[in-house]
Structure formats: C-alpha cells, structure tokens
Design a protein that fits this description.
The chain is an alpha+beta fold. The chain is built from two helices and five strands, in the order ααβββββ. It has helices at about 1-10, 15-45; strands at about 55-65, 70-75, 85, 90, 95.
Length: about 100
C-alpha cells in the first residue's frame, strides 16, 4: 500500500518529463563549459621562441605596396622565399625575382 501510493508523490514534485529536462540542462551546461575551456585554452598558448640567429637566411627582396607605392627591402628571412609583408591591409608585391643572385 505504501509503495504504490508514494511513487506519484515523489515524482509529482518534478514530474517525469521535468527530470529529463533537468538532466538535459546539466549535460548541456557541462558540454558548454568544456567547449568554452577549450576555446579559452587555445588563446593561452605561449608565444613561440624566436629562431636562432644562425637559422635566418640572407635574402635580397624588394616589395612594393600596390596601393601607396611604399617599397620595403627584406634582407633576412626564415625561408628562402618568405611570405610577402602586408601594407595598407594588402600583401605587398614582389619587385625583385627570388631567383636572382
């Protein structure tokens, strides 16, 4: 008599569907916190150490900005053909050939 009568009273406070909503909300909150910690952890990466002085290569490139015609000469780079610098929010154009000596 007690077991059958107490079950509706216990579930009556929350209801069967409300329990699943609470469980779903807790799972959603845990997943949201996990994703947020991964995103914030990605911003916390340390700045990479600068390359050793011996690793820089001597280059002789001249770049020109296509918008304002500013010219830049690059004398050292990490790669033999480095990425062009940016000026006026655009990549600069290479004026000299990377294969000229």
């Amino acid at each position: 008599m007690i077991s059958g009568a107490t079950a509706p009273l216990v579930l009556g406070a929350f209801g069967g569907a409300s329990i699943w909503r609470i469980v779903g909300a807790v799972v959603f909150a845990v997943v949201l916190l996990w994703i947020g910690s991964k995103v914030l952890g990605g911003f916390a990466r340390p700045v990479p150490a600068p390359p050793d002085p011996g690793e820089l290569r001597r280059v002789r490139f001249t770049y020109r900005c296509s918008i304002c015609a500013t010219e830049v000469r690059m004398t050292q780079a990490n790669d033999e053909v480095p990425e062009p610098p940016r000026h006026c929010m655009e990549d600069m154009e290479l004026v000299t050939s990377p294969y000229d000596d």
